[in-house]
Specification:
The chain is of the alpha+beta class. It has one domain: paralog of FGE (formylglycine-generating enzyme) (Alpha-Beta Complex). The protein has 4 helices and 12 strands. It has a 5-stranded mixed sheet. Strands 2-5-12-6 form a 4-stranded antiparallel sheet. A 3-stranded mixed sheet has the order 3-4-8, covered by helices on one side. Helix 2 crosses helix 3. The longest helix is centred in the middle third of the chain and has 14 residues.
Length: 319
C-alpha cells in the first residue's frame, strides 16, 4: 500500500515537564575484576545510549492523552543515522539470495537519503537479513520457541518471539527511541530544546506553533523537486547522544504496538500486545513542528508503507 501517513495514521501526543539538561556523570576509570569482562567497544556507526531512568511523554503544550511516567531503560546501541537507500539495497541483495524472498526494493531519492516506502514487516525482516549477513544472532523468530528465523511473509510478531538478548539488529522499542531522541535533555520538545527551525531539522515549518522559528514552509534547501523532500542523512546537528535526524526527514518505525501509556513506573517496556497499529516516531519532511516533537506518537498498520517513513536499527548490549 502506498499512501501518506496523514490519511491513515492515528495521532496522539504524550506528556512531560519542562526540565533541565542532564549532566553526564564524570567518567571514572574502572579496572575489570577477574570475573568482569571489559565492555565491548561501540561499533562504528552506532552510539551507546546509557542505562537509566527518564520521564516518557510531554506536558509542555497541555496534551494529556498519554500520562507522564518514569521509565528505566537498559543500555543499548542506536544507529546514528537513518538507514539509507544504499544500505537497504546492499542488505536486500544479500537477503534475496539467502531466504528473504519478499524484501521489497523500497524507495529513496538518492543513495545517501533515507530509504522509505517500506512496511514494518519489511524492516523487521531486513533487520534479520542484516544480522545474518554479518554472522550475528537474529532477534526475530516465527514462534515463541525461537527455532525458526523470521525471513518472509507478513507475521505479527509478539514480544515472546524476540530474542532481546541476541547480538543482532532490531527496531528500537518506543521507550528506547524516545530516550535516545531526547539526547540527555529532560522535558524538552525536541532533541535540542524547545523551539525548532530549518537550522535543526527538515520539516514543513508552516503551521501555527509558537515554538517554530526562522524560515517558513518546506525546507529551503530540500523542499523542492519531486516528493518526498528528504535530505541526505546526517545533514543536521546531532543530539546529545550523537544521533542524527531524530526529528524530521523521515519518521521511524519502532517495535511496539500502539496503545496508551500506563500511568505506572516501567522497566524496559516493549509495548502493548497485541494491537492494530505499530508505532513510528520523529515527524518527517512534510509534517509540522508539533509532529517533530520527541514525545509525538503515530500509529499505522504494519502492512502499510509510506513515502515519508523509514527507520534506524538498534542493538542490545550483550557480551
Amino acid at each position: 500500500m502506498r499512501t501518506s501517513p496523514r490519511l491513515l495514521a492515528l495521532l496522539v501526543l504524550a506528556t512531560a515537564p519542562v526540565g533541565r539538561a542532564e549532566s553526564p556523570a564524570a567518567p571514572t576509570a574502572v579496572t575489570p575484576t577477574a570475573t568482569e569482562a571489559p565492555k565491548a567497544p561501540t561499533p562504528p556507526g552506532f552510539a551507546l545510549v546509557p542505562a537509566g531512568e527518564f520521564t516518557m511523554g510531554d506536558a509542555l503544550d497541555g496534551d494529556k492523552v498519554a500520562p507522564q511516567h518514569k521509565v528505566t531503560v537498559s543500555e543499548f546501541l542506536m544507529q546514528k543515522n537513518l538507514v539509507t537507500k544504499a544500505e537497504w539495497d546492499e542488505v536486500r541483495e544479500w537477503g534475496l539470495k539467502h531466504g528473504y524472498t519478499d524484501l521489497p526494493e523500497g524507495d529513496g531519492k538518492a543513495p545517501d537519503h533515507p530509504v522509505q516506502t517500506v512496511s514494518w514487516f519489511d524492516v523487521v525482516k531486513w533487520c534479520n537479513a542484516k544480522t545474518e549477513k554479518e554472522g550475528l544472532v537474529p532477534c526475530y523468530y516465527t514462534g515463541a520457541a525461537k527455532t525458526e528465523v523470521y525471513r518472509k511473509g507478513d507475521k505479527n510478531l509478539a514480544n515472546e518471539m524476540v530474542r532481546w538478548d541476541a547480538t543482532g539488529y532490531r527496531l528500537p522499542t518506543e521507550a528506547e527511541w524516545e530516550k535516545a531522541a531526547r539526547g540527555r535533555l529532560v522535558g524538552r520538545r525536541f532533541p535540542w530544546g524547545d523551539t525548532i527551525s530549518h537550522n535543526e531539522a527538515n520539516f514543513d515549518n508552516s503551521a501555527w506553533e509558537f515554538y517554530q522559528t526562522g524560515s517558513t514552509g518546506r525546507h529551503p534547501k530540500y523542499g523542492n523537486g519531486d516528493l518526498p523532500y528528504t535530505s541526505p542523512v546526517g545533514s543536521f546537528p546531532a543530539n546529545g547522544f550523537g544521533l542524527y535526524d531524530m526529528a524530521g526527514n523521515v519518521a521511524e518505525w519502532c517495535w511496539d504496538w500502539y496503545a496508551p501509556y500506563p500511568a505506572t513506573v516501567e522497566t524496559d517496556p516493549r509495548g502493548a500486545v497485541p494491537g492494530s497499529y505499530r508505532v513510528f516516531r520523529g515527524g518527517d519532511c512534510g509534517l509540522h513542528a508539533r509532529e517533530c516533537g520527541v514525545a509525538f506518537r503515530v500509529g499505522s498498520s504494519p502492512a502499510n508503507s509510506f513515502y515519508d517513513v523509514g527507520f534506524r536499527v538498534a542493538r542490545s548490549c550483550v557480551p
